[in-house]
Design goal:
Helix content is about 20%, strand content about 25%. By secondary structure, the chain is of the alpha/beta class. Helix 4 links the parallel strand 3 and strand 4. It has a seven-stranded parallel beta sheet with strand order 3-4-2-5-7-17-18, with helices on both faces. A five-stranded antiparallel beta sheet has the order 12-11-14-9-16, with no helix packed on it. A four-stranded antiparallel beta sheet has the order 8-15-10-13, with no helix packed on it. It folds into two domains: about 300 residues, Peptidase S8/S53 domain (Rossmann fold); about 100 residues, Sandwich (Jelly Rolls). Helix 4 runs parallel beside helix 7 and helix 5 packs parallel to helix 6.
């Protein structure tokens, strides 16, 4: 077993080094030009024997012993909410169950609207760890939180006990677990004490190196000083992928975010938080070899605490603390970060705190070996469904348990990785079955 563990550690460590930059520009996981963006499925080296690597990882999770006892998630439904299910029919009866239930909440009704298989990868993790669990798939349109909430309601009505979402939407909350979408999501999920309440898992996000949070610091002329008095924060696009700069703050003042193409000296977008709207978003399609910078200006009212996230690019000045975006920042959601086999937080994995609720809740080792492609599944996107699958196994063993009881059980069996108790990098620890 010592050799096997070292073997896993070797390829996970290599993958971890490659995902430091968060994502490849060609990653199928991001939604260009949209607020909804899947956490990056980072490039990882091909695995020479993914089946063997997966078996070793399942032993480490405690799943293999449950399977040997015949406990495989029977009778539990798990909903996968995502944006990328292109070609899922080809995987039925192989990496996915033979029969699954699907529903699109897009206006066009297309579950396979995007050229992405990110959701299939998430569902593969569920099926690998809880092979007898039933799987539901659903998607929604970018910038449509109402459709997302409809998908959650549908999952509950369909009898799902567990829901997993590895897609982030930073501008749908204030970054502190508050806002209208969180309030409705909490209502739909339930308090966790009713037999019908769902347990919702979400990726913590891969935004630790492209996020800023803190109080507005006036440089003296109304511009925010990011670091050492600098009012410019350079953006590094990941190629041709559309970039989205998303600002969230309390609706007490007016902040303006602006992005300039410094190569040609032209602004590509400005947006303000105003009229009670606590978010502002600037999106642009980057040009090859052009350089971009963002600035944040206080226009009027109070200037308080804010979060800023860049999707589709890197950020020169960033803060890891408080970088967990919606939905993982909410107390009603279980946020799962990513670590290597040594239990070290991977540099991109988002950190808390984000609210009064300790965040993240847990972490899981990534990448997760895939049986249908050479590259294993990386990022916090691969962490959330692992935790969700363990919850499904617990629900199957204890069908009378509530969502709250399963959540507490996972806290009790997690492998503590940092200081005793919860910490803002690895939560209560690495998920593990008793």
């Amino acid at each position: 077993m010592g050799i096997a563990v070292k073997r896993i550690a070797r390829w996970l460590a290599i993958a971890g080094l490659l995902v430091i930059c968060l994502s490849s520009p060609q990653s199928p996981s991001s939604i260009s030009g949209a607020r909804a963006a899947a956490t990056p499925d980072s490039e990882a080296p091909p695995e020479d024997d993914p089946a063997r690597a997966r078996s070793e990882l399942m032993e480490h999770l405690g799943v293999a012993s449950w399977h040997r006892q015949g406990e495989r998630g029977h009778g539990v439904r798990v909903a996968v909410l995502d944006s990328g299910f292109r070609g899922y029919h080809s995987y039925l009866g192989h990496i996915l169950p033979t029969n699954i239930v699907t529903r699109s909440f897009r206006a066009d009704g297309m579950l396979e609207s995007r050229d992405s298989q990110h959701g299939i990868l998430c569902a593969e993790v569920i099926h690998a760890l809880a092979p007898d669990a039933e799987i539901l798939l659903a998607n929604w349109e970018p910038d449509r939180p109402d459709q997302f909430l409809q998908a959650v309601r549908w999952a509950r009505q369909a009898g799902a006990r567990v829901l997993t979402c590895s897609v982030i939407m930073p501008a749908w909350s204030d970054g502190e677990g508050h806002g209208q979408v969180h309030r409705e999501l909490s209502r739909v999920l339930g308090s966790g004490d009713s037999p019908a309440d769902m347990l919702c898992f979400a990726s913590a996000g891969n935004t630790a190196q492209r996020h800023w949070s803190g109080y507005f610091h006036d440089s003296g002329d109304g511009w925010h000083a990011w670091e050492n008095g600098a009012i410019d924060n350079n953006i590094h696009p990941w190629g041709k992928e559309r970039v989205s700069v998303e600002l969230s703050t309390a609706p007490v003042g007016v902040l303006q975010v602006s992005v300039e193409d410094t190569t040609i000296g032209r602004f590509v977008g400005r947006a303000e938080t105003k009229g009670g709207q606590a978010t502002a978003t600037v999106r642009f399609s980057p040009q090859a070899d052009h350089e971009y910078r963002l600035r944040l200006k206080h226009l009027n009212g109070q200037s308080g605490f804010f979060h800023l996230v860049v999707l589709g690019g890197g950020l020169q000045y960033a803060t890891a603390h408080g970088s967990i975006p919606f939905p993982g920042d909410g107390p009603e959601v279980v946020a799962v970060g990513a670590v290597d086999t040594e239990g070290r937080r991977l540099a991109y994995s988002s950190c808390g705190p984000n609210s009064e609720q300790p965040k993240p809740d847990f972490v899981a080792s990534v990448p997760f070996p895939s049986l249908w492609r050479a590259r294993p599944f990386s990022g916090t996107s691969a962490a959330a469904p692992q935790a969700a699958a363990l919850a499904a196994l617990l629900f199957a063993r204890h069908p009378d348990w509530t969502a709250h009881q399963v959540r507490k059980a996972l806290e009790g069996t997690a492998e503590d990785l940092g200081p005793p108790g919860h910490d803002c990098e690895t939560g209560f620890g690495r998920v593990h079955l008793p």
